[in-house]
Amino acid sequence: MSQVPALEQEITAELRELRELLSKCSTLSVAGMCFAKALAPDESPDRLMSPAKQIAFMLGVLLQDPEPSGAENFAQAEWARAKRILGRLFNAYLLLYMPSPDEPAPTPEWRASCEVAMPAFLQHFNTGLLATIEQIADRVTRYLIPYDSDLIRILGISASECIQICAWINNHLQQTLDHVADRVDAAKREHNMLRQATVTQISSPRPDHFAASMRPELAGVFSSLQKVGIISLQDLQVAFPEKGLTFWKTFSIARGEGPALRYPTELSEFELRPLIRVDEGKAFCPSINAVYGAVLVVGERALLAQPGLRKNYLHARDKSLEGEALDILRRFFGTDAQVWSSYVSLPRRRRRHRPNPFAIQTRRLFA
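The structure corresponding to this sequence follows.
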């Protein structure tokens, strides 16, 4: 008997449980936990199999429901529960595409091929785009910036302007983290000075006096922590008066505005709009990589949706990929190799010396 109906029910049940969990929690606590896990990756035995993809999917589910009244905190216990749900959900989806042992197969070779091909495909999909922000920015530069004028017409903002704003967001997030580190260091220094004063004094100060002395420093730490991950629309518009609001409207989203998700392979709305608005003028950024990635995805989708641009863009992107592969091969084999990046089919009477695709000749192979 096919296992598909049972797996479909399991996926539905896990998705419902995840949505129920997230619908009770505050946006800031969920997004903040994701931000923290991006800074300090989980190394526990029950860590996520595909953190980037699974967290993006979880945040997509979060965006389906509005901010709850009396929202609960998404703490370590909730994070552990969410990990277990995501693990079961993604495993069930993987098994959905694997042939069941008792399911009739056309041929033994078909079953063997499925058992190799499907895990490879799902692994490729679940991994997502594993790239640094510099690598993603390089792709945007090579693929999208040549179409800046078209993107301005379609989206109201160019890829060049988006990359500049992404860099500003990245610097802003880094500055807030640096500020927190500075305040923590200042609090530690103040704490050590007070402890030293306690040791050197004949009569120790009262505990309430010690706490009162530390209160301003601790207040500074907590104040700085509340700004971590937050992007202000006002600051964005000051830095980019002409395009700040357009970027905000294109790449930000509020709770309750996200579409319903059914399967892990669906594109999460978070992958398109990774700035999660917590009020009209502020948004939380759980991942700076997601912001850069969204520029690439949104820009490509905009160009591919235009019949007059689709073919031209795909051709240009393919040529860019070929050039990138050619550069890598040349660096790998060195200057003593000749690399052909294209295949030319000649008439039969002239097919004496036809190079193979990506053929390589080593001049001093036996030197």
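The longest strand covers residues 275-279.
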